[in-house]
Design brief:
This protein is α/β, with parallel strands linked by helices. It has a single domain, classed as Alpha-Beta Barrel (TIM Barrel). 33% of the residues lie in helices and 23% in strands. Strands 7-6-5-4-3-2-1-8-9-10 form a 10-stranded mixed beta sheet. Strand 6, helix 7 and strand 7 form a beta-alpha-beta unit. It is globular. It starts with a helix and ends with a strand. The structure holds zinc ion (2 copies). One zinc ion (ZN) binds next to loops.
């Protein structure tokens, strides 16, 4: 019985989407070049990926100027887009954003390459300020791995949801605490991601959708609709 349901859900949501992935050099903690990431995801049968390179004070300070940081950040995205063409992989622009106010990370979707300078300037102001800066744009802010050590739960009013399942093997995500918090706060969107940094982690946690999200706008639509499933390893989870 369960097997039949599982098969039905898999058929219903055939598209595999990685919501959390990094490349170097924009994320120096990653060992993926654009080419290897595109190749690896395609081999895993993944149809779309949100590239969510780190964007915050630590990474900004690795560069001599704002311009140099933004140039590298954009260049990683463009390189992945280019590499992905060979593999029929859709690349969606995302960021993993950290503000000066604390060590929290946020997956942000719906911002564009042309917004990078504005985002850079908003890092100092914190999450509440960032919400105001982008109040007129349809962006999605999901707190990433909210219970990693050193992080605190953000004000739920400022969030669209949270990445409750984070499958990066390097940290303990304390998933049980995140899951409870998300329930208590009734966070509208629950997602998961592989937080992919190195070959071998691909496909650990995927979003399963009915149709391929061609851009951030359609991905946001799917997430807001709740019409998706999550895949953790070979298991299907309904959010
Ligand atoms: Zn990283
Ligand atoms: Zn990450």
């Amino acid at each position: 019985m369960i097997k039949e349901y599982k098969k039905k859900i898999e058929e219903c949501y055939p598209i595999r989407v990685e919501l959390h992935a990094h490349t170097a050099p924009a994320s120096p903690c990653s060992t993926f070049s654009a080419e290897i990431l595109a190749q690896t995801l395609a081999r895993e049968g993944i149809h779309a990926v949100a590239l969510t390179n780190h964007f915050g004070p630590y990474h900004m300070n690795l560069f001599p100027s704002k311009e140099a940081f933004l140039e590298q950040y954009l260049s990683d995205y463009l390189a992945l887009k280019e590499a992905a063409k060979k593999y029929d992989l859709t690349v969606i622009f995302g960021i993993e954003l950290r503000f000066s106010e604390n060590k929290n990370d946020y997956l942000v979707l719906g911002v564009e390459e042309s917004d990078l300078s504005r985002i850079y300037d908003a890092v100092e102001g914190g999450l509440a300020h960032f919400r105001k800066v982008f109040a007129n744009e349809d962006i999605l802010i999901l707190q990433a791995h909210p219970d990693r050590d050193g992080m605190v739960h953000a004000d739920a009013e400022l969030l669209d949801g949270a990445e409750i399942f984070n499958l990066y093997p390097g940290y303990n995500p304390h998933t049980a605490i995140s899951a409870k918090w998300a329930k208590e706060e009734q966070l509208p969107i629950i997602v998961g991601g592989s937080d992919l940094h190195h070959p071998g982690g691909e496909g650990a946690c995927l979003l399963r959708t009915r149709e391929r999200p061609e851009n951030a706008e359609t991905l946001i639509e799917v997430l807001r609709s709740g019409d998706y499933a999550l895949q953790i390893g070979g298991s299907i989870v309904l959010p």
